[in-house]
Design a protein that fits this description.
Belongs to the class-III pyridoxal-phosphate-dependent aminotransferase family. GO terms for molecular function: pyridoxal phosphate binding; transaminase activity. This is Aminotransferase. The chain is of the alpha/beta class. The protein folds into 2 domains: about 140 residues, Aspartate Aminotransferase, domain 1; about 270 residues, 3-Layer(aba) Sandwich (Aspartate Aminotransferase, domain 2). It is about 35% helix and about 15% strand. It has 14 helices and 15 strands. The strands form 3 sheets. It has a 7-stranded mixed beta sheet with strand order 4-10-9-8-7-5-6, with helices on both faces. The protein has a 4-stranded mixed beta sheet with strand order 1-2-3-14. A hairpin with a 2-residue loop joins β1 and β2. α4 runs antiparallel to α11 and α13 crosses α14. The longest helix is centred in the C-terminal third of the chain and has 21 residues. Bound molecules: pyridoxal-5'-phosphate. The site of pyridoxal-5'-phosphate (PLP) has 14 residues, from α6.
Length: about 450
Amino acid sequence: ATLGLDQDAPLEALMQAGASHLWLHASPIQTLVTQADRRILVEGRGCRVTDAQGHTYLDALSGQWLVNVGHGRAEIAEAMARQAKALAYGNASRAATLPAIQLAAVLAHLTPGDLSTVFFSSGGSEAVESALKIARQYHALRGEPERYKVIARRGSYHGATYGAMSASGSRSGVDSYFGPLLSGTLSVSAPYCYRCDYRKTYPECDVYCVDAIEDLLRYESPNTVAAVIAEPVSAACGIVVPPAEYLPRLREICDRHGVLLILDEVITGFGRTGKMFASEHWDVVPDIMTLAKGLSSGYAPIAATVCRQPIADIFGGANGKAIGHLLTFGGQPVACAAALANLDILQRENLVRNAEQQGAYLLSRLHDLASRHPSVGDVRGLGLLCALELVTDRRTQQPFPVDGPEIHYLLEKLAELGVLTRAEGNLYLAPPLCIERHEIDELTGIVDTALSHFEEAHSYL
Ligand code: PLP
């Protein structure tokens, strides 16, 4: 190839070219050659991926929490090719396409309650960005333009674009370069019982952390708040599964004060937690639900912001008002075709039920493993969304250094034994929803061995 390298170029040359020209996200430039845990992936089948050197690994993070139906699904590739040949693009604001209409109708049907109207975009950050703008414009159109504030939970992650980043719960680390953030974004503590910010214990606490949201609302004056945004189960907080009372009470608080509830199901949607949507574990219907990742299992970049009927009513009807928001790639028909084929597999193969069953098994194996490993302070999970929280001392719950050499050692050991995943203070385990019981045995066996090496190498700290 005259313009670059062909696929058969030697690995060294590919790595060098990647290091020089490809900027991996959330990474320093050139990490492809400077960090041992970066690799070039070339193929995937089911729960496994293969790198350019021919090593095959169990993909314990489903790519980036998204390859729900597994790798290598030819049906999805074929559906995309059919649509690309028929029509590769319509017009996001002036024309609908068949797959966009079909997918919107499927999502209206799958999502709970009267969630009914779908605004498409390309990724989770855009889905959140859209939700925030819809919430503000909704209040403005109803005659309450002063409702602009958004409350999020500390430690949560809603995306990388400015609105989504501002509504995420981190004000330190790399985020500190980008201020000032969107004004009016506030934060409260997450329902993180292992490290409760209020030094309380469940159930005696009576879930004070959700009442604290109402306290903040009252303090800010409720009629200045547009929305509360939350992940039903927060992956970024460390797979924080809230107490049973939390989300139903949050729904009541939002209703009491006319505040919209945005549930961000970008990770938890499409079966990840053992139900189609995690909010269904607690029978809570948000006003706006954000979806991405598992919507296409990563086969195409697509996301959705799904709104309840009262919101659609404000923007719709004879006197309908245009939303001030247009994304060229919203509802891109090839991506919609990928999502439709993906959802078809998810349902045909009962993968949501499989996630529930295999998730329960994975969690029981992780509890067993935790009882034997002093580096594991806590085990959390719902469905196939699990984490082991690593500590330097179980008794004091001393948190683990998030990006130190010890974590890199653990990740390299896991890769050497055949597992790819991610670890910071937590070791995350979220494999594709098509995983089978023997693969969970293989996965947890490798985690067990890797933790033993890790504890021995650091004699346990
Ligand atoms: N919301 C949640 C809950 C996420 O976990 C993420 C990404 O991990 C996002 C939003 C942002 O999605 P994207 O990276 O597709 O923009």
